Amino acid sequence: MSKVRVGLGDRAYDILIGSGAFQAAAGALRTLTEKPSAIVADETVLGLYDGVLEAVFGEMPIITLPSGESAKSFAEYARVSEELLAAGVERGGSVVALGGGVTGDLAGFCAATLRRGCKLVMVPTTLLSQVDSSVGGKTAVNTRAGKNLVGAFHQPSLVVIDTDFLASLPPRELLAGYAEVVKYGALGDESFFAWLERHSGTVLACEEEALRHVIETSCRMKAEVVAEDEREAGRRALLNLGHTFGHAVEAEAGYGGGVLHGEAVALGMAMAARFSVARGLAAQADADRLERHLASVGLPTRLAALNGFDASAETLLGHMMQDKKVEGGTLTLILMRRLGEAFVAKDQDQRVVLEFLEKERA
Ligand code: NAD
Ligand code: MG
């Protein structure tokens, strides 16, 4: 089992990673849940792993969350909060989130606000949540105006990443999570990207050691960035590579599973790379290399690859302007200097972005 520490002073915490990590961490998990605590679990995951859950926690109250993005709603936030209170969860107790990013975000927001904040333990079960959403303390629900627009920063006390959970994950979800892994290489580590070019097959076949390596590398990079810039005043925004273009696609496709978050991020990264080339900031060869790798594993890199997707450039730009990085009406994009080096580009001219989007649609 590997351990990555997120260095946040008195709120520092460990990420435990490996095959069998959930049962191996039983002692730490029981200590964190000594005071009245409860588990919030994705319904599908609970159906598959209720036996394992009982072996680790015994008779702890379990609140079930329906599977899917629609669970990140005000309605579910209210229901789960009421049920946590009814279960007697105290401020010194923990909310244990068992599931993917949806469960972590919703349960995390409940923990952030329950009795003005109780402990949170993350047990992520999708690749996306294991490499990204379970670490860093962002919690949220979706609103009519857009995704993740109401939420809080609330760091977990422990993250337990058991790669065994991934055995039951649908291949399309695994691949979507892999897009976020590629993101870490593309934004900050060319040698990790090169490793992925050689080993994507073993990762996507869920070979234990390959999974542990990519999750540890991703979490180490995320932990480092979060420790430096917890509230996204600067460098943390780099983790949004591919997300501004990607969110526009996701918003337009409607979060119903038509385009998964990771798929949108893959396409968004390819677009960010091409935009960087168009602005004379990066070399064509680097954008090509990124696109080639994403396409080689079956991730989308072109708008045209999305079935029945026909949003206008204006519509896409409208979605991009909902981004949390928009300041005083101007767009901030994460662009690339080369593979392995992204940077924050403020004040992007909307007309230039619009022109680019028109070309991308052609
Ligand atoms: P998800 O939580 O919806 O899980 C995807 C699907 O896989 C669901 O149907 C779920 O029931 C199923 N599932 C989960 N684990 C399984 C397992 N082990 N075996 C079989 N099925 C399993 O989606 P996700 O991709 O994990 O997360 C996406 C969410 O994460 C989005 O809402 C996104 O906004 C959020 N997110 C948050 C952050 C953050 O920093 N907080 C970062 C990235 C993404
Ligand atoms: Mg993401």
Automatic annotation (TrEMBL):
It is found in: Cytoplasm. Residues 177-326 form the 3-dehydroquinate synthase C-terminal domain. The keyword Transmembrane does not apply. Residues 63-174 form the 3-dehydroquinate synthase N-terminal domain. Its main location: cytoplasm. Its cofactor is Co(2+); Zn(2+); NAD(+). One of its GO terms (biological process) is amino acid biosynthetic process. Gene3D superfamilies: 3.40.50.1970, Dehydroquinate synthase-like - alpha domain. GO terms for molecular function: 3-dehydroquinate synthase activity; metal ion binding; nucleotide binding. Zn(2+) binds at E180, H243, H261. Pfam families: DHQ_synthase, DHQS_C. NAD(+) binds at residues 67-72, 101-105, 125-126, 138, 147. Pathway: Metabolic intermediate biosynthesis; chorismate biosynthesis; chorismate from D-erythrose 4-phosphate and phosphoenolpyruvate: step 2/7. Binds 1 divalent metal cation per subunit. Can use either Co(2+) or Zn(2+). Keywords: Amino-acid biosynthesis, Aromatic amino acid biosynthesis, Cobalt, Cytoplasm, Lyase, Metal-binding, NAD, Nucleotide-binding, Zinc. Catalyzes the conversion of 3-deoxy-D-arabino-heptulosonate 7-phosphate (DAHP) to dehydroquinate (DHQ). This is 3-dehydroquinate synthase. It comes from Parvularcula maris.
